[in-house]
Amino acid sequence: DTAVSQTPKYLVTQMGNDKSIKCEQNLGHDTMYWYKQDSKKFLKIMFSYNNKELIINETVPNRFSPKSPDKAHLNLHINSLELGDSAVYFCASSRAWQSTNEKLFFGSGTQLSVL
Amino acid sequence: GESVGLHLPTLSVQEGDNSIINCAYSNSASDYFIWYKQESGKGPQFIIDIRSNMDKRQGQRVTVLLNKTVKHLSLQIAATQPGDSAVYFCAENTGGSQGNLIFGKGTKLSVKP
Hints:
The structure holds two protein chains of two kinds. Chain A is an all-beta fold. Chain A has no helices and eleven strands. Chain A is globular. By secondary structure, chain B is mostly beta strands. Chain B is built from no helices and eleven strands. In chain B, the strands form two sheets. In chain B, strands 2, 4, 5, 9, 10 and 11 form a six-stranded mixed sheet that branches. In chain B, a hairpin with a 3-residue loop joins strand 6 (about 55-60) and strand 7. Chain B starts with a strand and ends with a strand. Chains A and B meet through strand 5 and strand 10 of A and strand 4, strand 5, strand 9 and strand 10 of B.
């Protein structure tokens, strides 16, 4: 029944490794996002996809690569993990693109710890 | 850069009292504002929204006030309960075809029994 679900909930890994976080929404929404929340709780958008097409790609290292196989899924792959990548990553979705003033529905987050 | 901020990073209230969480924004073009609640270990959850053509909107125990003159947004919670303890974020949509939701830093609300 979960509207926006992401896995895993926790991810602990070594520096230099490659990891993926998966996200799925069952709301029938057209737009999906990845946000990063730092230790001070600040939420910053990383990527946004609308109908599987990349709309927003903020200043994010190219080690981060989102992939949207269909509009219900947006996965995040991270190469060569660094200590500074440690954060909570949130997936979100909205009915349509934000230019139409749409609210976001968030997943429960993936806490990534890079050792 | 970031244009949404909060006056108080932490707020402690007594159960049953009213809470007021404030937010300042700097983008006068923003036309849509949302308040989110984030409980520990969970994702942000929508509380209430308001469009720029309104100055007040009420929900169940919550009221959002928008003052465009001074670019100020507030969230009022009536009869605060322990379950209201969380971090509250305001967010603004900067508008336009590339409209983007930008989040403020968050205020932690603690409710004392």
